[in-house]
Specification:
alpha+beta, Glutaredoxin, 4-stranded mixed beta sheet, 3-stranded antiparallel beta sheet, 10 helices, 7 strands, about 15% strand
């Protein structure tokens, strides 16, 4: 399925691979002929073709090298797209729990109106564009103390309105356990409940452990500094960012809106 999706996004890659193969085969055949003529010329047979054969062999060799370069670049791009798609699929399966108002679309809200529970669990894929409730998901991962400080700052600064206005939902993840933050005062959770969803199912441990290793390799202190990953409305997983700077994220979206730039893909 991932390969089919990648092929749909790059429909001419197979054609390019066929062209590379055909041109490389032609260049290799021509090179073989030139080498044979060079050998014959050195042996005194058709010596008048020696210089021409040398030139042809150089051109053919350079052509093969260039084709290999283009093939390698295309192959690496294909591999990166497949990895990105696989990463997105892993995130799409993760479950979060939050308020109905935050996670449910209008149709889902009506169907769950009879439920006594005020919270629901939904996969992150349900927050993509066209799935009912479009949101930019910000996964904020750090040690327990850093996550506690983040939630306290969110409550004190009253970021709820700005986050909701810009369709941002925060998913705090405590490392190294890769779980929802535990032991946070209920008053703090209540103040930020309109803009946070908590990990509630799926392989959060595996996904976040991989992200933590990537962050460590980039020199990030994952417990004290933490890192953020943004899942865009179109489902694409953004690059990992050092630290957790929610105000900067809000400002970036608002700035693009102010100058009338498309914000659907950020």
């Amino acid at each position: 399925e991932l390969r089919l999706r990648e092929e749909a996004e790059s429909p001419f890659r197979k054609v390019r691979f066929l062209v590379y193969g055909a041109l490389a085969a032609g260049a290799a055949t021509s090179l073989a002929v030139s080498i044979a003529r060079i050998a014959a010329g050195l042996a005194g047979i058709n010596a008048d073709l020696l210089n021409e054969s040398l030139e042809n062999s150089i051109v053919d060799s350079l052509g093969i090298i260039a084709l290999y370069f283009f093939w390698k670049r295309d192959s690496e791009e294909q591999e990166n797209r497949l990895k990105q798609a696989a990463r997105g699929a892993d995130y799409a399966k993760l479950m979060v729990r939050g308020s109905q108002e935050l996670l449910l679309g209008e149709g889902d809200t009506k169907s769950s109106a009879s439920s006594e529970s005020t919270t629901v669990s939904r996969p992150l894929s349900s927050l993509r564009r066209g799935r009912g409730k479009e949101k930019r998901v910000v996964i904020a991962a750090a040690g327990k103390d850093t996550i506690r400080k983040l939630l306290e700052e969110m409550a004190e600064m009253s970021l709820n309105a700005s986050l909701n206005k810009n369709d941002l939902v925060i998913v705090p993840v405590t490392l190294p356990q890769c779980t929802a933050p535990l032991g946070i005062e209920k008053r703090i959770i209540n103040k930020v409940s309109s803009c946070i969803a908590l990990p509630a199912g799926g392989d959060w441990v595996s996904v976040m452990n991989d992200e933590s290793e990537t962050a460590k390799n980039q020199g990030i202190d994952v417990l004290s500094e933490g890192f953020c990953i943004i899942l865009k409305e179109n489902g694409i997983v953004g690059r990992q960012a050092k630290g957790i700077k929610l105000e900067r994220m809000v400002d970036a979206v608002m700035e693009r809106k102010t100058i009338v730039i498309d914000v659907a893909n950020i």
